[in-house]
Amino acid sequence: TPFYPRSPYAVAKMYGYWDDRNPVRSDNELIPVTTYLRPGHSAMLSMANWDNDNAQKCRIRIDEKKLGFRPTQVYLPEIDELQPAGEIDLNGEIEIPATKGHIVILK
Questions:
Q1: CA Rg, the chain, in Å?
Q2: Under a CB-based contact definition with an 8 Å cutoff, are residues 7 and 42 in contact?
Q3: pLDDT one-digit tens code per residue, 60-107
Q4: Which terminal residue of the chain, N or C, has fewer Cβ atoms less than 10 Å from its own Cβ?
């Protein structure tokens, strides 16, 4: 599913990686996660590797109570010149190249 800047996430509640209310966390401080939440519906995660030289791996922890739903679909939307469409396993490690990132959709 292509992602367009005028998506429903433009009206979502943003929880920055620094916000204790953020329902999604990374176990690697070099890969912070910001969550754009549409309560009870879906979320968009913005993940970035802040290491300038090395790929980094992380695991994601989701607080479903804070999120307001249990994700049953997790995917990388196609975003021209940024990322191809794909799948992601939130139960496994996620690797992100140096200075790169992922946009992840949870539904």
A1: 13
A2: no
A3: 999 999 999 999 999 999 998 889 999 999 889 999 999 999 999 999
A4: N
Per DSSP (E only), the strands in the chain are 13-15, 24-26, 33-38, 42-48, 56-58, 60-62, 74-76, 86-87, 94-96, 101-106
Judge contact between 44 and 67, C-beta under 8 A: no
Across 1-29, b (16+ Cβ under 10 Å) vs e yields eebeeeeebeebeebebeeeebbbbbebe
pTM as predicted = 0.88
CA gap 47, 94 in Å, rounded = 10
Q: Hey, what are 5's tokens?
A: 């800047």
CA 9 to CA 95: how far, in whole Å? 24
